Amino acid sequence: MSKGGLILGIESSCDETAAAVVERGERTLSSVVASQISTHARYGGVVPELASREHLRAIVPVVRAALAEAGVALDDLDAIAVTAGPGLAGALLVGVSYAKALAFAAGLPLIAVNHLEGHIHAVLLQGLQNATAASGNNPQWTGRSPSDSPDAQSLALVVSGGHTHLYWAQHGEGGWRYRLVGRTVDDAAGEAYDKVAKLLGFGYPGGPWIDALARFGDPRAVPFSFSQIKHKIHLGDRPPRTKAAVSAPIADLDPHFLFSFSGIKTAVLRYVELHGLREEAQARAARLFAPGADARPPRSKEEALELCPQQVLDLVASFQHAVVGDLMKKSFAAAEALGARRILVTGGVAANRELRTRFSAEAGRHRVRVEFPTLALSTDNAAMIAAAAWPRFQAGEFASGELSGNPSLALGGS
Ligand code: KG4
Ligand code: ZN
Question: Are both 199 and 339 inside the same structural domain?
Answer without folding.
Answer: yes
